[in-house]
Amino acid sequence: MVEMELYQRWVRQDLEDKDLQEELAAINGDVESIKDRFYKDLEFGTAGLRGVLGAGTNRMNIYVIRRATQGFADYINAKYKNGTVAIGYDSRIKSDVFAKETARVLAANGIKAYIYKELMPVPCLSFAVRRLHCSAGVMVTASHNPAKYNGYKVYGDDGCQITLEGANQVLENIGKVDIFGGVKLVGYQEALDSDMIEVISDDVLEAFLQEIQKQSINRDVVKEAGLKVVYTPLNGAGNKPVRMILDRIGIKDVVVVKEQEKPDGHFPTCPFPNPEIAEALDLGLKLCKQEKADLLLATDPDCDRVGIAVPNKTGEYVLITGNEVGAMLMEYICSQRIAKGTMPEDPVAISTIVSTAIAKKIAKHYGVEFRQVLTGFKFIGEQIYGLEQAGHPERYIFGFEESYGYLIGTHARDKDAVVASMMICEMAAYLRSKGITVLEYLEKIYETYGFYYHTQQSFTCEGAAGMERMNEIMANLQEHVPTAIGGLKVLGVDNYITGETTDMETGEKTKIALPNSAVLFYHLEDQASVCIRPSGTEPKIKAYYTTVKDKKEDAYALDQVLKEDLTKILGF
Length: 572
Known about the structure:
Layout: H1 2-12, H2 18-26, H3 31-38, E1 49-52, H4 62-79, E2 84-89, H5 95-108, E3 112-115, H6 122-131, E4 136-140, E5 149-155, H7 164-174, H8 188-193, E6 197-199, H9 202-213, H10 219-225, E7 228-232, H11 239-248, E8 253-256, H12 282-291, E9 295-299, E10 306-311, E11 317-320, H13 322-340, E12 348-352, H14 358-365, E13 369-373, H15 377-389, E14 396-401, E15 405-407, H16 417-433, H17 438-449, E16 451-460, H18 464-479, E17 484-485, E18 488-495, E19 500-503, E20 509-511, E21 520-524, E22 529-534, E23 540-549, H19 552-570
């Protein structure tokens, strides 16, 4: 049994991390636990690595990090002369350790590493790559996953997540590296002394914040609005930069959720530190009621996503979805930039195929070119890079995805909860100056463009058998195409796996203009849709539902019907 052989090899090693030694001893004789840790290597894809912390090849630990970095170093040295890499990390367990191990391996391979002295948001890493003219970047984070996870995201020289081609080359390199004997390593202090590791100066964070401030449209309104904000960084990296930017734009009344203020990778008050999940915001919502706040802001541990809540007429706080915030920001940015005369020629807004379709209507209303890309902010980043290469980065005005990720400006090439927090607060302040609440603004948007209801459902497939089950489900859906979902006829299917769209009535097939991806998108009657894809970072299949009705209750009811039927179709 290969897994047992690998287990024994790890046991025989004099492991530096005593936590790993203890874990290996604890699972001695437990065949299933050993298999789960050693049945495969933790997969390196376009999102880099992400997995459960622990011992083994299918876990996140210093040896897996070192091996991946060696493969990445070989990739950089083959592509660049005198390569350099920027490194960032968040508050997760061992993030700082993994970041330093990454720097040690890079330095040993002749690649200079620039590393932040403290935890920083994802967008700060993306910004640093370009600001410091680096060949690449590494961010140690598992975003919004539970505490037992950590990850390792890789960025290209454009500050955008690495391409599929680049990831495949790194993966091929990693396969050639022996996890214990094939990694070059130098002492951290030794590399600091020789200038092969350099701590990123505070000037980079200052430049980042200045670029964000430039995105403000109605900056004078904010100071006069008197907004009271409750903020929670969910024990993550947003605490310092978000509070700094809010202070700079004139929001002085910011109350922070004390239990979630300090960095803590165990996330003691929220098992799922994800602003998409209501339970993570419980403490923030309670503080809002206590403080009678105008707005709740919640950023995830690596501060690339932000969730919000606002009070309704009765004083109860209402959570706003990522699609709704995206729609409001799109409306606000378009209308106000036109009003201020700052809208560029041929403006471009970008979103993903699983995000709200109302964005396309808003863009059309304001004469903005609307582009849709595959799920993953790197595809939005690629579009920005294309505009930059064409000499017109100013054409980009806004990009977002339904999972609470937004980017205003081209300072970063990943979603940015710092600039999003600023713009959300500015929008709320502007609306107050006009005597409009955030919820009234949202209702006005629905009245203008139609009521779009979007929900998401996840089907978990854990363990060694999980990936196999996900593959079987996706294959079965292609072989047996549903003719109806929830009683609504399937009008067409976008099969991103094969790169073809099929008209279900005529059977006609046309090519899709986006790269192939494990996504199936079903266009249903009455403007409804269902999209299915395996998660790129978690062991689950995700389903995205859209219903469009005149009345909210009708949209809600249809959504439930679609979910019940799809659950049966998928076999859960």
